[in-house]
């Protein structure tokens, strides 16, 4: 289980905490700084394509990608120098899915972003996609945990050593809980 928790909706800074189950309890393995969308978190159910916000909620982590497997147990896709894309074009049948080919202008060019640094390692957050939900056009796409030291377009970024440590302990269908402390831990 990974947590990415912000103090409030307007901030891009989060605390990333990874926990593992030990018997019937949970143990924190690491805590590190991270960042989310340039406009902070969207309230639950309010995330939209291009809003610069990260979604609030609990999502499966089922696959990873990048320049080479750091030792994760998640299915891992090694990206090529060109032609790896993630659909972000509203109305396209490939919306919020990986595909290989010529990226459309609004789509994520995974290959180029890998070469630039952030996607040298990444984990897919299953927001607005199976197995957590069907894809809804326009509700947001390409939400990942990836390498970075600043705000994102809606993903969760963290230092490479932190991300790779998290990747090595993740198992298929582990989850990430994303949002403000108030939204995630209401009493």
Key structural traits:
187 residues, mainly beta, L,D-transpeptidase catalytic domain-like, 9-stranded mixed β-sheet, 3 helices, 11% helix, LD_TPept_cat_dom, L,D-peptidoglycan transpeptidase YkuD (ErfK/YbiS/YcfS/YnhG family), transferase activity
**Total beta strand runs:** 12
Largest sheet: 9 strands, mixed
How many distinct helices? 3
Distance between the termini: 20 Å
* CATH fold descriptor: L,D-transpeptidase catalytic domain-like
CATH class membership: Mainly Beta
Structural class: mainly beta
Helix content: 10-25%
Label the overall shape.
globular
Which band does the percent of strand residues land in? 35-45%
Could you say what the CATH architecture is?
Beta Barrel
* Mean pLDDT, all residues: 96
Low-confidence stretches: none
Radius of gyration: 15 Å
Order of helices and strands: EEEEEEEEHEEEHEH
Number of domains: 1
Region (Disordered): 41-73
Domain L,D-TPase catalytic: 30-174
GO molecular function: transferase activity
Protein name: L,D-peptidoglycan transpeptidase YkuD (ErfK/YbiS/YcfS/YnhG family)
């Amino acid at each position: 289980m990974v947590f990415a928790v912000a103090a409030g909706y307007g901030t891009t800074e989060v605390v990333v905490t990874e926990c593992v189950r030990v018997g019937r309890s949970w143990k924190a393995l690491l805590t590190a700084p991270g960042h989310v969308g340039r406009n902070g978190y969207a309230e639950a159910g309010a995330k939209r394509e291009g809003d610069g916000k990260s979604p609030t909620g609990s999502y499966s982590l089922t696959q990873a990608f990048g320049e080479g497997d750091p030792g994760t147990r998640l299915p891992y896709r090694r990206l090529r120098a060109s032609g790896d894309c993630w659909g972000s074009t509203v109305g396209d049948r490939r919306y919020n899915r990986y595909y290989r080919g010529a990226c459309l202008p609004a789509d994520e060019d995974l290959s180029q972003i890998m070469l630039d640094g952030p996607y040298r390692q990444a984990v897919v957050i299953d927001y607005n996609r199976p197995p957590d939900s069907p894809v809804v056009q326009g509700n947001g796409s390409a939400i990942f945990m990836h390498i970075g030291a600043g705000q994102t377009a809606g993903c969760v970024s963290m230092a490479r050593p932190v991300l790779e440590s998290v990747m090595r302990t993740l198992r298929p269908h582990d989850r990430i809980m994303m949002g403000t402390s108030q939204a995630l831990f209401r009493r």
